[in-house]
């Protein structure tokens, strides 16, 4: 079904659709390859970043173990134990010099240790660099009975400068009388460089534009290379949501710190190489499309242009004007198109010859038919309806027998005028003249029917000067009286109306008589339209002078196919005959 529809499309549309199909397939293949490449890049990147995160975790774990060992070493050092256990101030002072030297040596043994602080059970702080008051507060965060605890991120004044650091610590218990929670000597704090914990050399291996976020157990950032984020604060919510889908996100826990590593990779950087490849592919498709259009245009020019010339001439021929049959088409292009044009020209020559012969035959037939109709019209006009003449003479005889009335004179005069008008006169008369004769004709019938026949005229004075065919209304009025009003037992009303509608004159003859059944009415209208003779078309409905069909025929012969008569009727509801002719001339 779809293929059949495709075959009916214009050639240019078919060629364009085929070209579009080829390009679409190429684009789909490119898109599939591009998406496949994106998935490969994403998968490789995920594995690569996962490896870097693993290295960071290993560095953190290794450094954390070193810090843990350092804390254990310091916490249970003999000098530290004696210093924190000494009650004598003199002894404590003598041990302090040794303690300070020891703490300094321990701080230098591991890169990244910024300060080591001891806080005794009275809150006194002994350290190298950090602010003592801050360390006192921090020491209270170390849980009891805990030999090592990684607090996480802190801001501490080092030599009067606020510095972001990491803090780990432990409670110190006496080694001579160790029972957790019963002989606590103080607290040990380790202040650590936040950048050296994870080995920031790993960041060098990340792609350009990668953003790194590291949080402690409290979810606070202790490292990030994102300038829009602040250390000590949680990772911004919009950073994690990435509503625009501009990044690839990787998250993994820092097991030793109860924290988390988050790395965001910008897709634009990862796919930069692929985008360049895609651009090259698009350029190749554009070039291929351009190269495909050139032969397409060449083929279409050699096929479509000759076809368009043929179709244009075919359209002119179908307009029905004989002059177009003498035209010929000349085309260039493929041999098949030239042969087709030649055969079409030969066909036009044959059609032109046949048309000339057909027109000659029609002209002869038309002239013969016209002569026949004129003879028939002359014959019909010369006839006197015996029925009408008999009734009229009976009326005259009855009046003469009953009384000497002026009506006899008027009736005779009306009859004389009517017969004189019907037998001779010009073919076209004014509507006013036609109405005068119709009034005489109706007067004759009124003498016969008396009050049973009433008549009304509703004619616009603008119509009086219009020319109409002579005796055009009499057959219509006669039918209305004979078949509409005469069978009535009540008073019959005959109404004649007329007005101008633009360039046309419209006349109506209405009666309130018996009416016509719908079936019979349809037969009458169809017969009138076929322009048959009165006797054949109306099957006896009109036996008066010039029948309705002849009136319709006369109008069409005179004025054309758009003019004529029409009939509407309802059974027991009367009949209306309408007449349409051009509103021309003055009498």
From TrEMBL:
Predominant localisation class: membrane
Any one GO molecular-function label of the UniProt entry: ATP binding
Residue ranges constituting the Histidine kinase domain according to the UniProt record: 472-585
PROSITE patterns according to UniProt: HAMP, HIS_KIN
Reactions performed catalytically: ATP + protein L-histidine = ADP + protein N-phospho-L-histidine
Enzyme Commission code(s) on record: 2.7.13.3
Residue ranges annotated for the HAMP domain, each copy included: 301-356
Localization (cell): Cell membrane
Lineage: superkingdom: Bacteria
Keyword Nucleotide-binding on entry: yes
Entry keyword Transferase: yes
GO CC terms, sorted: plasma membrane
Matches recorded under InterPro entries: Bact_2-comp_sensor_kinase (IPR050640), HAMP_dom (IPR003660), HATPase_C_sf (IPR036890), HATPase_dom (IPR003594), His_kinase_dom (IPR005467), Sig_transdc_His_kin-like_C (IPR004358), Sig_transdc_His_kin_internal (IPR010559)
One Pfam family of this chain: His_kinase
Membrane topology label: Multi-pass membrane protein
The protein's name: histidine kinase
Organism the protein comes from: Paenibacillus prosopidis
């Amino acid at each position: 079904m779809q293929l059949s529809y495709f075959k009916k499309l214009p050639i240019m549309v078919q060629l364009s659709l085929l070209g579009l199909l080829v390009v679409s397939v190429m684009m789909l293949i490119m898109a599939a390859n591009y998406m496949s490449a994106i998935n490969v890049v994403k998968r490789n990147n995920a594995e690569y970043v996962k490896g870097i995160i693993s290295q960071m975790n290993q560095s953190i774990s290794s450094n954390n173990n070193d810090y843990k060992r350092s804390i254990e070493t310091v916490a249970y050092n003999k000098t530290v134990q004696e210093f924190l256990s000494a009650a004598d101030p003199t002894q404590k002072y003598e041990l302090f010099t040794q303690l300070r030297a020891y703490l300094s040596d321990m701080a230098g043994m591991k890169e990244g240790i910024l300060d080591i602080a001891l806080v005794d059970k009275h809150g006194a702080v002994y350290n190298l660099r950090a602010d003592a008051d801050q360390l006192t507060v921090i020491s209270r965060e170390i849980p009891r009975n805990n030999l090592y605890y990684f607090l996480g991120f802190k801001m501490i004044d080092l030599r009067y400068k606020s510095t972001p650091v990491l803090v780990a610590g432990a409670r110190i218990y006496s080694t001579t009388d160790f029972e957790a929670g019963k002989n606590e000597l103080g607290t040990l704090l380790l202040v650590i460089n936040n950048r050296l914990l994870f080995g920031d050399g790993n960041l060098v291996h990340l792609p350009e534009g990668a953003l790194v976020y590291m949080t402690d157990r409290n979810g606070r950032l202790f490292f990030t290379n994102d300038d829009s984020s602040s250390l000590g604060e949680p990772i911004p919510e919009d950073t994690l949501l990435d509503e625009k889908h501009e990044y690839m996100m990787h998250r993994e826990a820092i097991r030793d710190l109860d924290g988390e590593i988050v790395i965001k990779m910008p897709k634009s950087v990862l796919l930069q190489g692929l985008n360049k490849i895609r651009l090259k592919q698009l350029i190749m498709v554009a070039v291929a499309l351009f190269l495909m259009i050139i032969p397409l245009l060449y083929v279409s020019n050699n096929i479509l242009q000759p076809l368009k010339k043929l179709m244009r001439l075919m359209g002119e021929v179908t307009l029905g004007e004989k002059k177009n049959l003498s035209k010929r088409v000349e085309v260039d292009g493929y041999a098949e198109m030239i042969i087709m044009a030649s055969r079409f020209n030969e066909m036009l020559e044959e059609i032109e010859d046949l048309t000339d012969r057909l027109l000659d035959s029609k002209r002869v037939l038309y002239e013969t038919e016209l002569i026949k109709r004129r003879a028939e019209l002359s014959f019909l006009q010369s006839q006197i309806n015996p029925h009408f003449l008999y009734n009229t003479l009976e009326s005259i005889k009855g009046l003469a027998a009953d009384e000497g009335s002026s009506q006899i004179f008027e009736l005779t005069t009306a009859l004389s005028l009517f017969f004189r008008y019907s037998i001779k006169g010009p073919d076209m008369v004014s509507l006013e003249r036609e109405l005068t004769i119709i009034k005489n004709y109706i007067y004759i019938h009124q003498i016969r029917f008396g009050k049973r026949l009433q008549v009304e005229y509703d004619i616009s004075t603008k119509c009086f000067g219009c020319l109409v065919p002579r005796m055009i209304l009499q057959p219509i009025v006669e039918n209305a009286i004979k078949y509409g009003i005469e069978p009535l037992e009540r008073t019959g009303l005959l109404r004649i109306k007329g007005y101008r509608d633009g360039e046309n004159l419209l006349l109506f003859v209405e009666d309130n008589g018996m009416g016509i059944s719908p079936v019979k009415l349809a037969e009458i209208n169809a017969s009138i339209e076929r322009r048959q003779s009165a006797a054949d078309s109306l099957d006896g409905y009109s036996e008066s002078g010039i029948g309705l069909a002849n009136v319709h025929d006369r109008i069409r012969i005179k004025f054309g196919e758009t003019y004529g008569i029409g009939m509407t009727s309802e059974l027991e509801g009367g009949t209306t005959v309408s007449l349409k002719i051009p509103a021309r001339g003055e009498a």
